[in-house]
Amino acid sequence: MHNYTVTLKSPLPYHAPSSHPIFSLPLNPRQFVLPLSPQKTGGSIYHNPVFICKGTQLSVPSHGSASLGPSNGNGAAVHDWKVRSVGIENIDVATLGNLCVDIVLNVPKLPPRSREARFAYMQELSKSPPDKKYWEAGGNCNMAIAAARLGLHCATIGHVGDEIYGQFLLDVLREEGISMVGMSEDGDIVDSSNASYETLLCWVLVDPLQRHGFCSRADFCKDPAFSWMSKLSEEVKMAIKQSKILFCNGYGFDELSPALIMLALDYAVEVGTSVFFDPGPRGKSLLTGTPEERQALSHLLKMSDVLLLTSDEAESLTGIGNPILAGQELLKNGMRTKWVIIKMGSRGSILVTKSSISCAPAFKVNVIDTVGCGDSFVAAIAFGYIHNIPLVNTLAIANAVGAATAMGCGAGRNVATLEKVIELMRASNINEDDEFWNELVKDMDTGEITFLSKMVINGRNNQVNHVALQKVVSELLPKLKDNSVLNFTGSSACHVIDCHKKKVRALAYFLACLVTEGEFQEDVACG
């Protein structure tokens, strides 16, 4: 799924090594620790197909009950994604590809850099299937879950396999109220024993200093993991057409061919769906990749409505060190680009349009883990875009959602909840650094510059408009709360409510049921 990367994190207590040669056992199972359960044998429910990828074999457990469709009698499953889709009408955000299961491990040290050594490391990882309770939804599931928790109606477009990992992803998405639209054509025969059809796994490796490494079979394959896909199904086209936003990121190239990604992009443009693109760390490698990858990257940068990048990624794509100037360059080169958003980490974020610059400092929080923060940030940007929220307000909520995710451990179902976001915004504790921001926008030739500030004395100063954080919070909180309640009035609301964790919302849900009596009789029992 991911290329090998290492990112410094805030140190957490290191767990003593286990008897397994490369893993650590947990003192606290939520602190990124994944003990490995022994491989089942004999009459076990596990069956172990093998991933074969340029010399690497990865054993993956399957479960007989996880079939997504009937068998054709020869061990191959016919996928019936219509059964799995909750519904594809009136979607706010649809994500394209990049669906995987994260398996998080504490390790004494991160994997070696050499390709051969990492092959061996991956083989060692696969010997003992991990306990299910330590799996987590990853990839674009992070963005979809964060968006759903803000009250947006979400769908994921992609492929998961006919095995226990695929079933796990489907269950998580359903519990979060997210639709799943498969990319297989009706009648496609999918051989569940073939590695090319298995759910993509991403091993998230954490060393004692809380540095992260990411490994998956996609790292060792010349072609995308699902290169057998060559066209968009009618269900996928319908999902794109019914969506306000189609979100793509650079990791989608690990699964889908550049040609298929461009097909989805062009169809979205044709039917009037806005396209969000976050190249991520893959942007740099795509820039020097195959001719097909370079063409697809260029097409996405030109045809997307909203681009989202870190300051380093913006510099690598433009050669410009100043993030605002880099954003303006991307805008100038884009054919449809309306917003370029630069993520500045602990500094905050910037939103650049053709006529304005908006800057918002980050919220001060105790950072536990930054995995999933960028995905959560994107979800909030989509929320602001859809609801036509003022630009600096949109940055404020995006910073808050990203920061709230950083306060937890890991991504997937651990991304920010609405309650955490509201609590953080009410605290209104931002990391102001006037000297940094003033230097960044000095001598900028633009129509208007807006700053989010904790306190405002005189408001506008020349071209600079200071907006008080408390004013922004007072405008955003009603919108967040209203949108969250509205999201409980749909016919799939019972999938959004976790009966064991969200009872505090049951009253609002019950009232929504009363308004549309008859549609929700079965679901009321969830309260």
Strand order of the largest sheet: 8-7-4-12-13-14-15-16-17-18-20-19
Structural class: alpha/beta
Distance between the termini: 38 Å
Shape: globular
Helix content: 25-40%
What is the CA-atom radius of gyration, in angstroms?
Answer: 23 Å
Low-confidence stretches: 1-87, 186-190, 488-527
Overall pLDDT level: 75
Q: Helical stretch count?
A: 17
Oligomer: single chain
> Care to count the β-strands?
20
The amount of beta strand, in percent, is: 15-25%
**Largest sheet at a glance?**
12 strands, mixed
Write out key terms for the chains shown:
disordered N terminus; 34% helix; 20 strands; four-stranded mixed sheet; alpha/beta; disordered C terminus
Describe the structure.
By secondary structure, the protein is α/β, with parallel strands linked by helices. The chain has a domain at 336-485 and 501-527. The chain is 34% helix and 19% strand. It is built from 17 helices and 20 strands. The protein has helices at residues 81-84, 115-125, 140-149, 164-175, 234-242, 258-271, 282-287, 291-303, 311-318, 323-333, 373-386, 391-406, 418-427, 434-441, 469-486, 493-496, 506-515; strands spanning 50-53, 56-59, 76-78, 91-96, 99-106, 135-139, 154-158, 179-182, 189-191, 200-206, 212-215, 243-249, 274-278, 306-310, 339-343, 348-352, 356-361, 448-453, 460-461, 464-468. Strand 7, helix 4 (164-175) and strand 8 form a beta-alpha-beta unit. Helix 3 crosses helix 11, helix 12 (391-406) crosses helix 15 and helix 13 (418-427) runs antiparallel to helix 15. The two termini are 38 Å apart.
